[in-house]
Design a protein that fits this description.
Layout (H helix, E strand, L loop, with lengths): L2 H12 L4 H4 E5 L3 E6 L7 E6 L3 E8 L7 E6 L6 E4 L5 H10 L5 H9 L3 E5 L7
Antiparallel strand pairs: 1-2, 2-3, 4-5, 4-7, 5-6
C-alpha cells in the first residue's frame, strides 16, 4: 500500500458516517423494513406491516437534527422511530402520505415548523 493510499484510507475512517450511510428503510405493498448498522454498535433489523399502523407522529427538529417519523402499530407498545434523513426515509414519508396514514395539511404544517410534535391517526379522519 502506498503512503497516499494509507493516508486516504485513514482520512476516510476518521470521517463520521452520515446517517443515510448506515440507516436504511425499504418497503413494499405489505411491510416496512428497517436495517441499521450504527458505527461501533451491533447491526439490527426491524419490520412492521402497513396493516398494523395505528398512528403516526412526525417530530420536527432543529436544523442540525434529523426530523423523525414515529410509527405506532398494533404489533408492539413502543413506536418504530425512523429518521427522515435515513436512506429511504423521504420515500417512506411520501408513501405514508400516499396511503392516507397522515393528514397532508398537518404534514405541511409540520414541514414548516422549526420544531414540534405532530400526531395523526388514520381513524381521526373517519366519521
Amino acid at each position: 500500500m502506498s503512503l497516499f493510499d494509507w493516508f486516504r484510507q485513514c482520512r476516510d475512517c476518521s470521517r463520521p458516517r452520515e446517517l443515510n450511510e448506515w440507516y436504511h428503510v425499504t418497503f413494499d405493498d405489505q411491510r416496512v423494513r428497517v436495517r441499521a448498522e450504527p458505527p461501533g454498535r451491533q447491526p439490527w433489523t426491524q419490520e412492521f406491516t402497513w396493516a398494523s399502523v395505528e398512528r403516526i407522529a412526525f417530530k420536527a427538529e432543529e436544523l442540525e437534527t434529523s426530523d423523525g417519523i414515529y410509527v405506532f402499530t398494533s404489533e408492539r407498545p413502543e413506536s418504530y422511530a425512523i429518521p427522515t434523513e435515513a436512506d429511504g426515509g423521504g420515500e417512506l414519508w411520501d408513501e405514508i402520505l400516499r396511503r392516507g396514514l397522515f393528514d397532508p395539511e398537518l404534514a405541511i404544517k409540520a414541514a414548516c415548523s422549526p420544531e414540534g410534535l405532530f400526531v395523526w391517526s388514520p381513524e381521526s379522519s373517519e366519521g
